[in-house]
């Protein structure tokens, strides 16, 4: 698939920047570029011929006390060095050569000198040298700055080497095109992988009779890559221990995201254009998360996910939710089969000026009788705020869908009548914590002076809320609520007078 013209190339560069920003941070930060004359380095024995076996003389007594540290400590030190600096420790002494050989290798193309004027380092060749020369295992490889265009054969060598050296953590991006470049089949031999992120590749076929390709894989990220439906279904079946699955900026490949896994706990779709999302059978799934982008509505079908606790951000203009075979429609009579009693945290995008979305929110909330935290993101609309819509909420007076609700957070608050009406309605349901992220602020709720602690005097704690909704927060199971952080530190709770007035005006 060719990219022609400067506009297409600029667009691809922008896409690459976005998906790179979603990646986990490097295990070792890339060093600052220097002006040393070591632009080309080798990892062969020729580097060691002139090295002093006892190590270079040091200040003080001239002894190399550093090399006398325990080997496991030296290995730990080496694992924190950029790739080139770790390799250069071999020239210090015979002790360091042994440490280098025994230490799991970290390879990051950000540690290599990029093309700068007359100084050019062949990153693909450097990666191959690192993989081939290191006699021990390879802990992690991160490649995000290298284009493999017209270097398919050169790529096959390091990937085959990774498979043989028990690679655990691999982030492999082709930057920036072609976007249909085939990923080497040897990727399927990397059975030791526990984390794999691939970007801008065409994923290979998995033979039907192939044994589980990734028996130890816990985390998989597919970024702007071509993985056809049939290939994806086969891939998921070959990851029996997979816990976290994420997609970012994937367009039409796969067209249908069908989840059938006994191990998955998190599924994240980030700015993708799937035709539909179907959770067929995921008994361990805890989080189903979206940051959707589409020009049309698409079904989100939840067939079996008995442990699902976190869902969102649902967007009524983009998602048609179906639970247990029942499509959720505004004003419908709720059936037991259309409820998810396991759900604890829900996030929804709502245009309060649209009557249909307000009524849909009213219906949706009845699907989750044990809901504890509700996030509403108020989306601006060209329609005017129509004021009162209390009649939509009156039928819920006897409903038990708020019986467990403890926390309500309103994102993008702009003070519209319908926003305030909904906040007032929610506050009547006995919640303990109210958080508001103002639409024109960085998360500090208001300005003014108020007693520390933010209490409104009626048992409701009003806290400034900071949105933490990001790709890495979404897939991080240690983050209790991926949508928001309620700030209770003294510095952030210093200004609530306006919030108190708001709560007072709403009768809370």
TrEMBL record:
Region annotation Disordered: where it falls in the sequence: 29-65
Name of protein: F-box domain-containing protein
Domain F-box stretches: 69-109
CDD domains xref list: F-box_AtFBL13-like
Domain of life: Eukaryota
Annotated source species: Triticum aestivum
InterPro entries, alphabetized: F-box-like_dom_sf, F-box_AtFBL13-like, F-box_dom, F-box_dom-containing, FBD, LRR_dom_sf, LRR_FXL15/At3g58940/PEG3-like
Family matches, as Pfam families: F-box, FBD, LRR_At5g56370
């Amino acid at each position: 698939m060719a990219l022609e013209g400067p506009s297409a190339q600029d667009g691809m560069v922008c896409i690459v920047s976005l998906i790179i920003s979603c990646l986990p941070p490097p295990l070792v930060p890339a060093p600052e570029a220097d002006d040393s004359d070591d632009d080309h380095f080798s990892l062969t024995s020729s580097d060691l011929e002139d090295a002093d076996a006892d190590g270079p003389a040091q200040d003080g007594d001239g002894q190399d006390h550093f090399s006398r540290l325990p080997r496991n400590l030296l290995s730990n030190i080496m694992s924190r060095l950029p790739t080139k600096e770790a390799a250069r420790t071999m020239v210090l002494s015979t002790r360091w050569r042994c440490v280098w050989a025994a230490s799991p290798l970290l390879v990051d193309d950000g540690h290599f000198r990029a093309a700068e004027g007359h100084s050019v380092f062949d990153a693909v060749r450097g990666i191959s040298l690192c993989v081939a020369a290191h006699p021990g295992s390879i802990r992690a490889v991160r490649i995000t700055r290298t284009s493999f265009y017209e270097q398919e054969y050169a790529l096959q060598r390091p990937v085959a080497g990774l498979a043989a050296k028990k690679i655990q953590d691999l982030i492999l991006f082709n930057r920036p095109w072609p976007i249909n470049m085939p990923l080497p089949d040897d990727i399927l031999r990397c059975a030791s992988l526990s984390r794999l992120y691939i970007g801008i590749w065409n994923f290979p076929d998995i033979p039907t009779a192939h044994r589980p390709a990734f028996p130890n894989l816990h985390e998989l990220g597919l970024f702007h890559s071509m993985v056809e439906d049939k290939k994806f279904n086969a891939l998921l079946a070959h990851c029996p221990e997979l816990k976290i699955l994420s997609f970012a900026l994937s367009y039409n490949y796969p067209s249908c995201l069908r989840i059938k896994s006994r191990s998955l706990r998190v599924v994240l779709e980030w700015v993708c254009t799937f035709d539909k999302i179907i959770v067929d059978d995921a008994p361990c799934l805890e989080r189903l998360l979206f940051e959707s982008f589409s020009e049309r509505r698409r079904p989100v079908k939840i067939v079996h996910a008995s442990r699902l606790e976190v869902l969102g951000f649902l967007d009524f203009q983009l998602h048609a939710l179906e639970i247990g075979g029942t499509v959720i429609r505004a004003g419908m009579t709720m059936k037991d089969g259309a409820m998810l009693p396991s759900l604890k945290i829900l996030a929804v995008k709502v245009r309060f000026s649209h009557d249909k979305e307000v009524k849909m929110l009213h219906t949706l909330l009845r699907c989750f009788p044990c809901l504890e935290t509700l996030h509403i993101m108020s989306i601006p609309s060209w329609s005017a705020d129509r004021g009162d819509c209390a009649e939509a909420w009156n039928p819920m007076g006897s409903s038990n869908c708020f019986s467990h609700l403890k926390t309500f957070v309103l994102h993008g608050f702009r003070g519209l009548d319908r926003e305030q009406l909904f906040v007032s309605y929610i506050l009547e349901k006995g919640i303990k914590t109210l958080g508001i992220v103002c639409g024109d602020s960085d998360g500090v709720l208001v300005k003014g002076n108020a007693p520390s602690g933010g209490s409104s005097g009626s048992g409701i704690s009003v806290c400034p809320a900071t949105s933490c909704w990001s790709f890495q927060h979404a897939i991080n199971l240690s983050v209790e609520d991926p949508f928001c952080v309620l700030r209770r530190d003294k510095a952030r709770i210093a200004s609530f007078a306006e919030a108190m007035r708001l709560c007072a005006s709403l009768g809370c």
